[in-house]
Amino acid sequence: HVLVDAHTIDIAIPQTAIIKGDQKEFCIAAASIIAKVTRDRMMLKLDDLYPQYGFAKHKGYGTKVHRQAVMDFGRTDAHRASFTISI
């Protein structure tokens, strides 16, 4: 059985969605921290590959600097195809 934060996910395992689960269940909070640290490490590696995008600073969030870099240099292979720019 899987506990998930707020919304169920598309897997064939019984699950319970808990609103504000990261505040109520230790395992959800721990998973959230692990996911954030993992993403931050991935962004540092992307910053090594694509320093002009500033991944180390914005961590992949759609900041003004990030959106401007995409406008200047285009999307990388790491960007989602759905990443849109509105400045």
What does this protein look like?
With about 90 residues, the chain is mainly alpha-helical. The protein has one domain (about 1-75). About 50% of the residues lie in helices and about 10% in strands. The protein is built from 4 helices and 2 strands, in the order ββαααα. The protein has a two-stranded parallel sheet with strand order 1-2. The longest helix is centred in the middle third of the chain and has 24 residues, at about 25-50. The mean pLDDT is about 90.
Q: Order of strands in the sheet with the most strands? A: 1-2
Q: What best-fitting shape do the alpha-carbon axes yield?
A: elongated
**Poorly predicted ranges:** none
Instruction: Please state the structural category.
Output: mainly alpha
Mean residue pLDDT? 92
DSSP helix fraction: 40-55%
Order of helices and strands: EEHHHH
Strand content: 5-15%
Total number of beta strands:
2
The N- to C-terminal Cα distance equals 43 Å
Number of helices: 4
Biggest sheet layout = 2 strands, parallel
**What's the gyration radius in Å?**
16 Å
Q: What is the count of distinct domains?
A: 1
SSE layout and pairings?
Blueprint: E1 2-5, E2 15-18, H1 21-24, H2 26-49, H3 55-58, H4 64-73
Parallel strand pairs: 1-2
Could you give a short description of this structure?
With 87 residues, the chain is mostly helical. Helices cover 48% and strands 9% of the residues.
